[in-house]
Amino acid sequence: MIVSLCKRRGFIFQSSEIYGGLASTWDYGPLGAELKRNLKEAWWRSNVFERDDVEGLDASILMHPSVWMASGHVSSFEDTLVDCKSCNKRFKIEHIPSNKKCPECGGQITEARQFNLMLKTHLGPVEESGSLTYLRPETAQGIFVNFQNVVNSMRKRVPFGIAQIGKSFRNEVTTGNFTFRSREFEQMEIEFFVKPGTDEEWYRRWVDERFNWYLKLGIKKENLNKREHEKTELAHYAKACTDIEYRFPFGWSELEGIANRTDFDLKQHMKLSGQNLEYFDDETKERYLPYVIEPSGGIDRSILAFLVDSYREEKVKDDKRVVLGLNKSLAPLKAAVLPLLRNRPEIVKLAKEITNDLKKNFKAMYDDTASIGRLYRRQDEIGTPYCITVDVDSLSDSKVTVRDRDTMVQERVDVAKIKEYMVEKLKS
Ligand code: GAP
What we know:
- The chain has helices at about 1-10, 30-50, 65-70, 75, 140-145, 145-155, 200-215, 265-275, 300-310, 345-360, 370-380, 390-395, 420-425; strands at about 10-15, 25-30, 55, 80-85, 90, 115, 120, 130-135, 160-170, 185-195, 225-230, 240-250, 250-260, 280, 285-290, 290-300, 310-315, 320-325, 335-340, 365, 385-390, 400-405, 410-415.
- The chain is an alpha+beta fold.
- The chain has 2 domains: about 1-60 and about 135-305, BirA Bifunctional Protein, domain 2; about 335-425, Anticodon-binding domain (Rossmann fold), CATH 3.40.50.800.
- The strands form 7 sheets. It has a 7-stranded mixed β-sheet with strand order 3-9-10-16-13-12-11. Strands 20-19-21-22-23 form a 5-stranded mixed β-sheet, sandwiched between helices. Strands 5-4-6 form a 3-stranded antiparallel β-sheet.
- Glycyl-adenosine-5'-phosphate (GAP) binds near residues 257, 300 and 301.
């Protein structure tokens, strides 16, 4: 349902579709691009603008290859894979049952092989080993290598965090489930630097903070879960990790991970770069390597969760309507202006004037390409919180009808006050 709606209404398309597509890569269409921008803005607002202990960063995707030696990604960022000798399907070793047979057809499986998930590339005109580097598999390392730059340029004191949103790349071998596991995706990550000894308290605070962020933006509580990792599941850098999971149609799966990365990364970068990355507290005169709490979420997984969670079908009299009950701040369009009679130039003119005025504040559209009932349904299906209808009476009483997406309640509002009214409504 969601996959077809995403394509039909311009949220998400398969990448390179006219060539048959490229596995596990996706393009965001006009409405998807707006939804993505709104989601990033909501994350940035709550984590950077509204906090005085977090600064933003936008580091490059290409980094010095030594970064990935230091981070452990060259040696440890691997999947262990097996192939089925009968059906030739490939599986991660953890998905093989205890009888060591293919989970799909019961056939014999091959010996396990290691497979590094980083995508390689070469810089410069010659493809030789000295030019080898990687497309980053996480945005986090751009933050670690800039730790001292941010401390010095912004005069930050621990505890503080650095936030970043950006593309990451992984040569995923088991794909599927739409955008859930893509080869190119976006992350929203914070590395929060704390004094060792205070890390466990900050870890718990960030787990709650991030869990509540999803709830505040409208995800239903019954579809959200915290799952603490077993020691054996922890990534090579983590002392503890909690996944925030969402109940996707294919089962409970990770939306975001909050990890206690200790001083692993700073220590490693100190070792390989030869630079001193210690923090000096000029009040207590202590010098130490901070521990790091890392809330790391995926934009694409969040978008998928918000779409799935907000989708509903309702019966209205004898009709059915599909609604994306997205939080207003996330909705791709905030308002649609619809003329009731498109063959009355004065009505069309007024509707277009209102649209142009609203566009100065937020994304709005004018639409006269169908009957009013159809136009409402189209806007409901893409999550537009308000439809504004201009009718014959509008020409004499200078009022328009505002219809609420969720309640379908209609209200007459003065044309002169419509922008002010909408701005207020969108805040609530
Ligand atoms: N810096 C830590 C880190 O990258 P991760 O658990 O591997 O940790 C963090 O990734 C988040 O990035 C995940 O919770 C998920 O939302 C997103 N993510 C990871 N791999 C992804 C993929 N292949 N496709 C889409 N999102 C992905």
